[in-house]
């Protein structure tokens, strides 16, 4: 089972503030025992194909690959024109994934807007994702829908954050070699749900995994729910990522279920949140995951 790293703690510096160059992240990867680097569409404009090509060449020179491109689609807006624009952006992200040589491109349902009913949201998400899956197949890219928490630019959490809604969305989408699940156990914790129950519900459709861990810096689940009652861009600061293996997730149980399910996809480290210790945190997380992958004889 190949291991990748995603620069979670450096995302704002790479994508928003532009204080860090993608080339620096690629060079930093020499410090980690990983096989690849996960990319994010915020690293460069989607239409800047030559820039993406240059990134792919730099990674290849390192003897590594880019398994996945993360994109945050938002298909739950009431405005049909907005949704069409989001479909176009997801397709542009699929094109970038193909340029990078990435097998996978993440797709999300969108924000849980209070004015949008569950029925309408699922209807719109289904329409949009099916359109994108059809296009992804022509580019040889697999879309992987994540049980996400919230994009760092969004006001509201993920529409399908809760297991019940996520599973219903999946049930509306026909099984296809071009559509799978990117499982993130920590996002279940944020939703106040059991990561194991989510995995058991979707294990036969998991194609990739975000390996992460969470801990409460301050407060508890009740405090988190109060914070989310007032929409604000970004993440709640009281619940943070940490070194994998030191937080709330049971990786023995997670890897045993994946093993039984025949999982053989990429696992990507999603670490953070402190850039000052980010490199060391990723290094420690990689050591932990390599040990567990070996222990459970995951390829």
Q: Could you explain how this protein is built, in words?
A:
With 299 residues, the chain is an alpha/beta fold. The chain has a single domain (3-295), classed as Divalent-metal-dependent TIM barrel enzymes (TIM Barrel, Alpha-Beta Barrel), CATH 3.20.20. It is 43% helix and 14% strand. It has helices spanning 11-16, 22-28, 49-61, 80-100, 118-139, 163-172, 185-190, 195-202, 221-228, 251-261, 278-295, and strands at 3-6, 36-37, 39-40, 68-70, 104-107, 142-146, 179-183, 206-211, 214-216, 239-241, 266-270. Strands 2-1-11-8-7-6-5-4-3 form a nine-stranded parallel β-sheet, with helices on one face. It is globular and about 45 Å long.
Averaged pLDDT = 91
Contiguous runs where pLDDT drops below 50 for at least 5 residues: none
What is the CATH superfamily label?
Divalent-metal-dependent TIM barrel enzymes
- Residues in β-strands, percent: 5-15%
Q: Name the strands of the widest sheet in spatial order.
A: 2-1-11-8-7-6-5-4-3
Q: Globular, elongated, flat, extended or rod-shaped: what is the shape?
A: globular
Number of helices: 11
Order of helices and strands: EHHEEHEHEHEHEHHEEHEHEH
Number of strands: 11
Number of domains: 1
The end-to-end distance, rounded to whole angstroms, is: 4 Å
The largest pleated sheet is described as: 9 strands, parallel
Give the C-alpha Rg.
18 Å
From the helix content, strand content and strand pairing, which structural class follows? Answer: alpha/beta
Q: Tell me, what is the CATH class? A: Alpha Beta
Q: Helix fraction?
A: 40-55%
């Amino acid at each position: 089972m190949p291991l990748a790293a995603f620069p979670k703690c450096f995302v704002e510096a790479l994508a928003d503030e532009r204080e860090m160059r993608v080339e620096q992240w690629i060079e930093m990867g020499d410090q980690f025992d990983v096989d690849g680097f996960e990319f994010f569409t915020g690293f460069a404009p989607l239409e800047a194909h030559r820039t993406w090509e240059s990134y792919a060449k730099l990674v290849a020179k390192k003897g590594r690959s880019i398994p996945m491109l993360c994109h945050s689609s938002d298909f739950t807006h009431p405005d049909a024109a907005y949704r069409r624009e989001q479909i176009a952006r997801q397709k542009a992200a699929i094109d970038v994934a193909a340029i990078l040589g990435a097998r996978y491109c993440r797709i999300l349902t969108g924000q849980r807007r209070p004015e949008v009913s569950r029925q309408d949201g699922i209807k719109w998400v289904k329409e949009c994702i099916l359109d994108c899956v059809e296009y992804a197949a022509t580019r040889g890219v697999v879309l992987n829908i994540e049980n996400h928490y919230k994009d760092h630019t969004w006001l509201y959490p993920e529409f399908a954050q809760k297991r019940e809604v996520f599973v219903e969305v999946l049930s509306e989408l026909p099984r296809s070699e071009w559509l799978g699940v990117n499982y993130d156990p920590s996002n279940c914790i944020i939703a106040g749900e059991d990561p194991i129950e989510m995995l058991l519900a979707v294990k036969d459709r998991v194609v990739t995994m975000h390996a992460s861990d969470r801990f409460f810096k301050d407060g508890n689940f009740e405090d988190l729910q109060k914070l989310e009652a007032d929409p604000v861009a970004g993440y709640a600061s009281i619940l943070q990522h940490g070194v994998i293996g030191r937080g709330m997730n049971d990786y023995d149980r997670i890897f045993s279920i994946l093993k039984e399910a025949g999982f053989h996809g990429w696992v990507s480290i999603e670490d953070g949140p402190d850039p000052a210790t980010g490199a060391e945190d990723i290094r420690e997380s990689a050591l932990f995951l390599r040990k567990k992958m070996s222990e459970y004889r995951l390829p």
